[in-house]
Amino acid sequence: MKHIVENDVLRFPHPVLKSTKLRKGKIVEITVSGKVFVLFRDKNQTPRAVPAACPHRGANLIKGKLNKEREIVCGYHAWTINGEGQGYSPSVPKRTCKVHSLKTWEKHGFIWIANKDVPDEAFPDFTNKAFNLIGSFTQKFNAPLKVVLDNFGEIEHAFQVHKFIGASKSKLDTVTFSVKIEEEQTRGFSSCEYRKQPFFFRWSYGLKSGDYYHNDWVFRFKPLHGSYHNYWTDKPNTVVRSNEFIITTFMTPITATKVDLHVFVQMKIKNRILRLFSPIIRFFTLLVTKYEIWEDARIARFAPLNPEDGNNWKLTNLDKQIFHNRKKTDTIYYGKKEYTEAIYEFTE
Ligand code: FES
Ligand SMILES: [Fe+2]
To answer: Is the beta carbon of 95 within 6 A of some atom in ligand 1?
Structure first.
C-alpha cells in the first residue's frame, strides 16, 4: 500500500458554527477532521478558537469558564488560555506556554476557522452580487465525507429523494446532464421538464406548465463546496423565469462518519410584483431548501460505511462527476501526494 501524506485541511477556511450559536460568555466545542477545538468570544466579541486540550495536562477546555478578561480558565487546575493562545499557570506563574490558536472570520452569518497563517485572500468567494443572501443553516450528515460528496455531484436522485427539484418520474426522459472538468473545479449542468407543483409554488416562482428546471453547479475544493444555481426557463430555453437561487453547500468533515453541511442560500427575484412578496418567497425558499437537504441527509445515512468501494458499482453517464470530485478531494483538499486512479466504466 502506498504511503499517503494528508495535509491539514485547516490550511483552508472552513465554516464551523452559525454566529448566533456562539453567545457571549459561552464556550462551544467543535471538531474538524478529528481535531477538537473550543470557540469563545473575547472582550471585543471577536470569535476565538484554540485546541480543546488544555496545554497543562489535556483536560477538555469545554469544562472551563471564561473570566472577566474573556480568557478560558481550565476547569482542572485553572490555567488560563487567552484568544491568542497564551497560557499561564496560577499556581506557578512563571510557567507560561503558547498553544496554536486559529484564525477566525465571522462572515455570512457563520464563524469560520483556519490555521493562523491563512491569508484573507484564501477565504472562499461564493457570493454573487446580483443575489441576496437569504439565510444559512447546518445539516448534519451521519455518513463518510465521500458519500456526502457523491450526493452533491449528481442529479439522478432528485426525482426519488426530492419534492421541489428535478423532474417527475414520468418525465425522466427529458433529463439532460453534462460535466466539465477543470483544473481546480468541476461543473455540472442539468435540465429537465419541471415536475408538477401546487399553485402557490408555481405562482410565487412565476412558473408556467411545461417549464424547464435547470440546476447548474460548480464544485470547488479549497475547501470543499458546491454552488448550485437553480432556475427555470420556458421549454425552448429563451425566457428565464423570475426567481433564481444559489445554494452553496460547504462540507466540513467532523469524523470518519460525520460531516457538517453548512448551507448558504442566495436568491434573486426579478419580477416587480413578486418582489413585493419577497419576505414570504424567501422564507418559503429557505424552508424548501432545508427540507430537501434534510432528505439528502436522511438517505445518505444508508450508504455503505466503506465509501472507497466503487469498483463494482454499475455506473451511468449521470455518475460521471463523482469520481472527478473524489479525486480532486484527495489531491487538492487533502493534498495527497500520490493518487492511484481507479478505472470505472460508465454506461451512456
Ligand atoms: S489540565 Fe488544565 S489546568 Fe491542568
Ligand atoms: Fe439532493
So the answer is: no
Q: Is the CB of 59 under 6 A from ligand 1?
A: yes
Verify whether ligand 1 is closer than 6 Å to residue 286 (CB atom). Answer: no
Helices (runs of H) and strands (runs of E) counted in the chain: 6, 20
pLDDT of residue 336: 86
Architecture of domain 128-333: Alpha-Beta Complex (3.90)
- Choosing among 2.40.50.140, 3.40.50.150, 2.102.10.10, 3.40.50.720, the CATH entry for 9-121 is 2.102.10.10
pLDDT in tens, 223-246: 999 999 999 999 999 999 999 999
On the 0-12 / 13-18 / 19+ scale of CB atoms within 10 A, 233 is middle
Q: What is the pTM of this model?
A: 0.93
For ligand 1, atom 1, name the residue with the nearest CA.
Answer: 57
Q: What 8-state DSSP symbol labels residue 325? A: H
**Nearest bound ligand to CA 56?**
1
